[in-house]
Amino acid sequence: MNNIPFITILLAMVGSVIVLLLGKKEKTAYLLMQFIFAVVAALSFVLIPYFLKNGGTITYTLGHFPSPWGNELRFGLMESVLAFAFSAILFLSVAAGKKGVLEDVKSCKQHCYYSLLLLLLLSLLALIYTNDIFTAYVFIEINTLASCGIVMVKESGETLKATIKYLIISLMASGLFLISIAIMYAITGHLLIPALSETVKTLVSSGDYRWPLLATAILITVSMGVKSAMFPFHLWLPDAHGTATTASSSILSGVVVKGYIILLIKIYYRVFGIEVIRSMGILNIVFAMGIAGMIIGSVMAMREKNLKRMIAYSSVAQIGYIYAGIGVGTWAALAAALFHMVVHAFTKPLLFSSAGGLIEASGHSKLIADMKGAGRRNKLAGLGFLVGTCSMIGVPLFGGFTSKVYLALNAGGKMYIFLIALAISSCLNAMYYLLVALRIFSKPSPDEDLYADEKGSASNYAFVISLFAAINIALGVGGILVYDMLIKGVEIL
Amino acid sequence: MGIISDKGKKTLTSFSDWVSANSPDIPAEVVYPPKKDDHGHGHDDHGHDDHGGHGHDDHGHDDHCEAAHADETHAHEEVLHEEPLKEASHEEPAAEAPQEEPAAEAVEAPAAEAPPPIEAPEPAKPEEPVSEEAKLCAEVGAIERSYRAVATICGIMLALILVVTVALLPKFGMANNPTVNEVSRRYLEEGIKDTGAVNTVAGMILDYRAFDTLGESIVLFTATITVIFLLQQSRRKDNEGKIGSTEANLSGVRSLPAKVIIRIALPFSLLYGIYVVINGHLSPGGGFSGGTIIGASLILSHLAFGERFTKRFATVDGCSKVMVAALLVYMGLKTYSVYTGANGIESIIPLGTPGSILSAGLIFPLNICVGLVVSCTMFTLYSLFTDWKIS
Amino acid sequence: MGNLFSNYYELASMLLFVVGFLILLIQRNLIKKIIGLNIMDTSVFLFLAAKGYIAGRMSPIIRDGVTDASRYINPIPSGLVLTGIVVAVSTTAFALALALRWYQQYNSLEVDWTTLKHLLKGEK
């Protein structure tokens, strides 16, 4: 049982290497990749009942030497839930976006794309499981390169621009992360999280190195904030997520951004300890930025006329929710934020995949103005979009509603601010999403009905969209189960 | 400084809002259907995209703003640094939080006022494109100047934060620094017993912290994939106007002395690289440094004698195959040691006598794998870059 | 002033970090941006190397079987620098490849408005 995380990491690693060898056989490469995603998801799922029954966490030594000497993995309920969710989302997003991939990526390069996706999975798993901040740095870099890679696969001028922007910003953030690790190492002498947190505790109680600790905390927050598109640093996101191929957009907004948030949570709770972060005032900043992101992301999304960019801006708002939840600084709020993260991770790929279908049904125009009647031409995509919309707005019975309720209930002393922001943000969400929904289902005037009747969608697309929608509703109805799991997982963080 | 930062933030947020409001909605590549549908969308207050056929200039403008804006993010992030500091000094974070609110909301106010400068060129658009362009130029120039000023201020702030941090760090080169603790002590004192490697750095990166190093090789691998992705296809296109002459690529430099010297030096540098790799656990060096030397020798031979010579023993495809094989072996070996280590199984690999070439257990084969990965990566990257032709 | 002037290596590395950071921010030329990136990374390596140094001790390669830790410097930063260098090489390679593609697409390495406008005109 305790070997499972390492096995999943190893599978992703070996898979990424072998997929590259399958140069000419794109089909085999695709199947192998999907097989690995599925196996990783299944293996991670096996861990969930185990931890539900036994509780606690497992520390897995990578090699013969325990902390503080050798690398380690550490995992519990939260990690298994997240690993399962992430690998499942990767599987489903790629299945839904396969058509787009076949169109956008040259066939002789598709194996490279699949290899990059596996590397992405590898880095995400490592970021979820790692117990060592330097390992985290190395895998952040893999994640950065792979995610920039999956943006640029379309090889158009537009994606090139988005990739360069994304790469430069990410590398700057990596630089900040590296220097903060270096400073942290200089004052503590440790890199493994258990030893590090011990030392930080003694440093805090003795009052030594207060400023360097504060500087490290700030730099790490900023660097992870940049990478996960926290509000003032979100400006790379619409380009990168809005221009990439559909599968990449789903993956980037569904899981990649979340990997960094999880790392930040780990650093807050396990390295510094949340009380220290709170007394430094960083939590309040994070909360304020989350609130600002909630509102401004929605305002930006409202102004967008490009469907994919609109969805991307809505991610900014949703990430704002997550950060607001983190900024409250209690276990329950953190679990609510994680739950919202899971819901968003399942909803955004649904929206992007449906948007891909809608865009295709309106003659490959991404403009919302051209979408009139697209939902009628591609009914499935239209319905999927509707479900995603309901979830994002927070209609009861959908995932987004449940997670927003948990976030609001657990906002503690900041509840009023949060509720006001939540109300504004939800109204704005409703405005722009419903406008699109109305437009795609409105009957086009005959002279506009240029793209009559696309041929029926592929069956796996239909399957994936309905599965995503079903998961969304399931999260809405049975969200309490997942939330309970996350609370249990978070409390032993 | 607080005043400056607040000011900076204000200009920045208003600017950022302004830019994002005008970010390019029309992707350059997409070919639009001819129909011109009036957007029934609630909030296109600027109507900036409705220029239709005249959209080029706006486009460039927007694009630039976005590019500038990308960097703006960083400008902004540095400004933010100031705030936690303020809070920390005030010691009243709770009181500060509501104050953050107006700052965030304030963004909307400038945004509402921002449109005038944008709307200004609009009436003139069909008649006099030149003047509009000039206006945009002036606008962009102003933005650029303010952006640079803000960026510089932020850089200075970052410098201040870091310099203050340095001043408070432990003193340089002292034996009682926090970094000198039980971790480094164990690496030094029991390194030989634990790993069998005389070179403790090799012992550390390939045994104690081997997972990092595996990740590091994967980073190289990722970079290779992305570079192959970006450059391999275009390489096969036959375009004229290449950078660097094909002749030099094919048969190397013309200069005779260079060829002679490289011919003499090549075997030695290759040998030295191999020496560094296989002595990685005994002396300074190891897979990474040795692999770089071998890669450099391959590159040197390519430089001097051209592709005709090097393709006999090193091609991009061959190198990537070797790299993949080495990575697989590497992963296999590491899996063995991780599996045995984590499950409390005694590893059957003997550590050997410290100091002899066949010692240190897995470190010796691992160094060879790493060396192969690194040298092949170096050569692959070099070939991809040099063979690539720009149209 | 604390240890500001005894920590001159660290001071220099931090200043270099900011220099690289600013180059990455302000320069419009992609190649210069990449150079800035490398300056930034390298400054961190200098910082780490300085952190590993202990006055009067030897490099961490066990000599003559003497395993007394007080004779050798700290081996950990050296390993971290090694990892960091490899990561920096990888990111640089990727960024350079992107720059080449950018050049192919737009015939320029500048990422600024005038070029972009010109380029987008050419593209249509």
Report on this structure.
The complex is a heterotrimer of chains A (493), B (391) and C (124). Chain A has 493 residues and is an all-alpha fold. Chain A contains 21 helices and two strands. Chain A has helices spanning 4-21, 26-54, 77-96, 98-104, 110-129, 133-152, 157-188, 193-206, 210-227, 237-243, 246-272, 274-279, 282-303, 307-328, 331-361, 374-377, 379-393, 399-409, 415-441, 459-477, 479-491, and strands spanning 58-61, 72-75. In chain A, helix 17 packs parallel to helix 20 (459-477). Chain A is globular and about 75 Å long. Chain B contains 15 helices and no strands. Chain B has helices spanning 2-21, 55-90, 93-106, 108-113, 115-119, 129-168, 182-189, 191-195, 200-208, 210-236, 246-251, 256-278, 287-310, 316-342, 363-387. Chain C has 124 residues and is mainly α. Chain C has four helices and no strands. In chain C, helix 1 (8-26) runs antiparallel to helix 2 and helix 2 (30-52) runs antiparallel to helix 3. Residues 118-124 of chain C have low confidence and may be disordered. At the A-B interface, helix 1, helix 5, helix 6, helix 7 and helix 9 of A face helix 1, helix 2, helix 3, helix 6 and helix 7 of B.
Using the alpha-carbon principal axes, give the shape of chain A: globular
Instruction: Give the total of domains of chain C.
Output: 1
Question: Main beta sheet of chain A, described?
Answer: 2 strands, antiparallel
Unreliable parts of chain A? none
Number of strands of chain C: 0
CATH architecture identity of chain C: Orthogonal Bundle
Largest interface, C-beta within 8 A:
A-B, 122 and 110 residues
- Give the strand content of chain C: under 5%
- Please state the CA-atom Rg of chain A, rounded to the nearest Å: 22 Å
Relative helix content of chain A: over 70%
Structural class assignment of chain C: mainly alpha
Helical coverage of chain C, percent range: 55-70%
As a whole number of angstroms, the C-alpha radius of gyration of chain C is: 21 Å
Note the quaternary state here. heterotrimer
Residue stretches of chain C low in confidence (pLDDT < 50, at least 5 long) are 118-124
Order of helices and strands of chain A: HHEEHHHHHHHHHHHHHHHHHHH
Mean pLDDT of chain C: 82
What share of the residues of chain A does DSSP label as strand, in percent?
Answer: under 5%
Give me the count of strands of chain A.
Answer: 2
Report how far the terminal alpha carbons of chain A are from each other.
20 Å
Name of the top-level CATH class of chain C: Mainly Alpha
